[in-house]
Every structure is written in structure tokens, then in C-alpha cells.
Amino acid sequence: MQVNKALTIAGSDSGGGAGIQSDLKTFQELNVYGMSAVTAVTAQNTRGVHGIYPVTAEGVTSQLEAIGADLRPDAVKTGMLFNKEIIEAAAGAIKNFGWNNLVVDPVMVAKGGSILLEEDAAAALKEWLIPLAKVITPNVPEAEVLTGMKIDSAEKRKKAAEILCGIGADITVIKGGHWNESDLCSDLVYDGQEFYELDGKRVATKNTHGTGCTFSAAITAELAIGKTPKEALHTAKQFIQAAVEYGIEAGSGHGPTNHWAYRRLGNAKR
Ligand SMILES: Nc1ncnc2c1ncn2[C@@H]1O[C@H](COP(=O)(O)OP(=O)(O)O)[C@@H](O)[C@H]1O
Ligand SMILES: Cc1ncc(COP(=O)(O)O)c(N)n1
């Protein structure tokens, strides 16, 4: 049986809600065969990050070469990359293997506030990885770090998206999770020519662990099956909306999103 394949290059979340666990669950729900290269093992639950154990750059390269030598991902995403050595290793392999269906989720800080990207590594993201990206999906704080500007108005959000496309991303999505303007939770898209919004309804919930990972993995899965970026973004937004609406009550902190809601619950109710 022929299937489309997607690869995530990201950290492991022992709690299962974010990172590679979230990505692989999302790929599975969207009928895509999932592969992973682990960049760091995190000891994590819904309350926070207890420890971070990075993989060496050599270890990351070795995983990517094993995948590249044999399996051919139709789309690739990056999540937590932790340090500049790992960013360089990931960008090198992505370039060498010509993996140009690339979604970069520039993960920096976990919901509980723990640092998932070392401070001096944001420059490496801009220099090596973002120029290779088809889609980049920063939240507002991440877009602020990458652009060096404070984003406190709709105009500035647009300006930041232009800057990020200027760095080399084909399409920039500035997500609205941290954009507390209304009961809408819309994400701003800029494709180098036009701006548009992915409309969503803000759900009043604390169960948002892994929202960014799930959203970017859904975009990746849709690109892997050959959807256009616009179609992929639209489906990913529906996927994350259902995943947050039916968020899972697990643990006492930020519970995880519900990866099966889009396929098994969300669509049935729509
Ligand atoms: N409370 C919420 N209700 C509905 N959608 C949400 C909510 N929080 C985040 N989202 C959506 O989840 C996706 C990830 O956004 P965000 O939480 O900003 O990313 P991150 O996890 O990287 O901080 C976006 O599509 C955003 O609009
Ligand atoms: C291993 C890992 N990767 C990413 C996140 C960010 O999670 P979120 O998607 O909620 O921003 C996380 N908490 N842990």
C-alpha cells in the first residue's frame, strides 16, 4: 500500500501532549505515515518541564541520514530544536535531501514558561532554517523574538509577518493563541502577496498543551498528501479548533489537545 509520509524533527514530551508525540498522533489522524528524529528528551507533564536532555548534533544528523537514505518524506516539520548545533544539523540534512515541503514551528518556550530554545539559537533559526521554510508558524512572543519588534497592534502583526517572509519563509502564519483581543482566535497568514485570517473561535479552556505542535503537524500532514499550502492551513485550523474544543482533562495543569476530535468527534458535530 502506498502512503504519504511526514517527518517531525522535534523534542519528546513524556506527557504525550506536545512534541513528537503530538506530531505523530496528528499525522496518524490525517492518514499520513509518521517518522521522527528526536532532538531532545524532555521530562514533562501537564504542569511543566522537569528536565531537558538534548541529543547531540551527531545523533540528530544520524537519525536524519538514516531516514533520508531510505525513506522519502513528502513533508517535514521542525519543532523544539533546543540549540544552535541541532538547528545546524537539521538545516544541513533538510538542504542535502532537498526536503522543501518544510514547516518550521519556531518553538521557544513551553506553556509553563520553561525555555525550549537556548537564547543564542534564535539567530541560527533565522540564518539557517527559516530561509528553507515553506511555512513558518510563530506565536506572537516567538514572532517578537524573531523580528525584534513588540507586536501590540494588528498593523504590527502584519509588519512582523512581512519581515519573517523577508527572512525567507514563503508563508508566515502568526498564530492567535496569545493574541487576547476578543473571543476570536484567528491566525494571520501572509504569503508574500496577500494577508488573510484563519478564523477560529477562542475556547475558554486551560487544556492547550501542544496546540502549536498539533497545528503545525496538521499543516505538514496536509502538505504531505499534496494539498496546497492554503488548503493545508484551512484544514489544520479546523483540526486544531476541534482538538481544543474537545481538549482532554488529564493531569492538573494544561491538559493536552484532543488529536482524534477532528476525525471522530468534531466533524460528526459540524
Ligand atoms: N483557547 C483557544 N481556543 C481556540 N484555538 C486556540 C486556543 N489557543 C490556541 N488556539 C489555536 O491553536 C493554534 C496554536 O496557537 P498558539 O497557542 O498561539 O501556539 P503555541 O502553542 O505555539 O503557543 C492556533 O491556531 C491558535 O489559534
Ligand atoms: C517537546 C516539546 N515541544 C514543544 C512544546 C511546546 O508546546 P506547545 O505546542 O504547547 O507550544 C513542548 N511543551 N514540548
Automatic annotation (TrEMBL):
Please give the pathway this protein is involved in.
Answer: Cofactor biosynthesis; thiamine diphosphate biosynthesis; 4-amino-2-methyl-5-diphosphomethylpyrimidine from 5-amino-1-(5-phospho-D-ribosyl)imidazole: step 3/3; Cofactor biosynthesis; thiamine diphosphate biosynthesis; 4-amino-2-methyl-5-diphosphomethylpyrimidine from 5-amino-1-(5-phospho-D-ribosyl)imidazole: step 2/3
Entry EC number(s): 2.7.1.49, 2.7.4.7
Q: Which GO terms describe its molecular function?
A: ATP binding; hydroxymethylpyrimidine kinase activity; phosphomethylpyrimidine kinase activity
Tell me if Cell inner membrane is a UniProt keyword of this record: no
Which enzyme class, named as a word? transferase
> Keywords of this protein's UniProt record, alphabetized?
ATP-binding, Kinase, Nucleotide-binding, Thiamine biosynthesis, Transferase
Residue limits of the Pyridoxamine kinase/Phosphomethylpyrimidine kinase domain? 13-258
Catalytic reaction(s) noted: 4-amino-2-methyl-5-(phosphooxymethyl)pyrimidine + ATP = 4-amino-2-methyl-5-(diphosphooxymethyl)pyrimidine + ADP; 4-amino-5-hydroxymethyl-2-methylpyrimidine + ATP = 4-amino-2-methyl-5-(phosphooxymethyl)pyrimidine + ADP + H(+)
Q: Cite the Gene3D superfamilies for this sequence.
A: 3.40.1190.20
Q: Which residues cross the membrane?
A: none
Annotated GO CC locations: cytosol
Biological processes, Gene Ontology terms = thiamine biosynthetic process
> Could you tell me the superkingdom of the organism this chain comes from?
Bacteria
The entry sums up its family as follows:
Belongs to the ThiD family.
Name-wise, this protein is: Hydroxymethylpyrimidine/phosphomethylpyrimidine kinase
Species annotation: Fictibacillus aquaticus
Lineage in the entry? Bacteria, Bacillati, Bacillota, Bacilli, Bacillales
The protein's gene is named thiD
